[in-house]
Design goal:
InterPro entries: Amidase_CS, Amidase_dom, AS_sf, FAAH2. It is a single chain. The chain is α/β, with parallel strands linked by helices. It has three domains: 239 residues, Alpha-Beta Complex (Amidase signature (AS) enzymes); 154 residues, Amidase signature (AS) domain (Amidase signature (AS) enzymes, Alpha-Beta Complex); 59 residues, no CATH class. 35% of the residues lie in helices and 14% in strands. The strands form three sheets. An eleven-stranded mixed sheet has the order 1-3-2-6-8-7-14-15-11-9-10, sandwiched between helices. It has a two-stranded antiparallel ribbon with strand order 4-5. Strands 12-13 form a two-stranded antiparallel sheet. A hairpin with a 3-residue loop joins strand 4 and strand 5. The longest helix is centred in the N-terminal third of the chain and has 19 residues. The radius of gyration is 22 Å and the shape is globular. It starts with 24 loop residues before the first helix and ends in a 7-residue tail after the last helix.
Amino acid sequence: MQIRISWPIPQVYTVGSMDWNLQTAERLTAALRAGEVTSVELTEDAITRIERDDTVINAICVPDFGRALAAARRADRALARGDVRQLLGLPVTVKESYNVAGLPTTWGLKEHVDFIPDEDAVQVSRLKAAGAVVLGKTNVPVGLQDIQTFNEVYGTTNNPWDHSRTPGGSSGGSAAALACGFGALSIGSDLAGSLRTPAHFCGVYAHKPTLGLAAMRGMVAPPSPPLPVEQDLAVVGPMARSARDLTILFDVMVGPDPLTHGLAYDATLPPARHEHLRDFRVLVLEDHPLIPTGSAVRAGVNRVADALVAGGAYIERHSPLLPDLAQAARLYTQLLFSGSAARFPVEKYEELRVRATRLDLDDQSLDAARLRGMALSHRDWIETNSRREPHRHSWRQLFADFDVVVCPITPTAAFGHDHDPNPLERRIDIDGVEYPYFDQLVWAGVATMPGLPASAIPAGRSPAGLPIGVQLIGPMFEDRTPLRLAELLEEAIGGFQPPT
């Protein structure tokens, strides 16, 4: 039996008469420019809060407070000169997997505890160029390959709403930090819902950009050099406590790597398709053919659907244009697990290949898809990958009739910590019935496999008081459309609330 540990009533640290820790980045920027507060005051306030509260959450695994205060002093001087950079003076955090010059990058791997890069990741450089004050790095699972956040180097990160539960992964440290007021913004990454799931579990916002839209150089497993390598399925993206903040940080992050595509072009994205809720055409999904949706998540989806209808939006629950979700999930699973097994020792790969040949040809389970994916040869991978483009084309056709698809991120709210060393033996409980642990990734794959943008937004609470989020999936390279709908829904149903 799990015992819910309630988040304590927070002690309020104030600058003047205002508690700044949980204010939005947009509000803080306005206050900094108006002289209501200084960057040093905000940074000291955030550090005090982290030192007080993070002993039980363990979100900030690599603090960098000395350099943060120095950056805050520089920001205050720049503000005094009239500088108006997007993030000037804002305290932020960075996922541990990003290289930050002078700080360790381990990806939770104990053999790399001494690896310290001497160059910032391109996205860290963009944060700093925009004037952000980096407080430190946030915790991750081992190799970024879990839906939880724990490792032998930095330990376990707890969900701020219930310490017996996970904040999600792999950007779980960033989501927990935001929920606790440890900085105004954070950056993470997403391959299998690693931005969206922690946002859903912790009650904050995140955006998975269109595949290839935001440069990833320097977000690389140690001790690999920070080269501009493009990774299949994976993206980097923003996390925030409000939808508007999400867009602000997205604008800082978006754009090609200056070492490659950035030599030839800039990113110029189309505007949002609509500015008002009443003009949106939305397909609402709550059921997946391969896994049930828990009642609490279903209620969150329907809360958003009700808000859309109340705001005059056009919604449908079904469409013949929707790609085959079961087929897409199997394809996504094979592509995802082929990458996870790519560096397995030869003998391990050969064992997997032999096991895969013994599968019944009629076995279309996700367990079979995982095994087939891990055993793919290069030839087989190319054939599997060739089936992705027809799915993308189907999505293009669907987005001619709809602007956004609303659907779950995972089937449940945050689940209890489960450190079974073999994740294939883990199970998740969906309304009293157990399912394979990794089956819950199918909803993340709806957007990831075809490379679509998806914004994660808060959508209420479960009966146990846990946050529930949903994702808004948009057309490829039309990221501003789901981001704008996120802003409108925040106005309609409310947004982030601090843990209670």
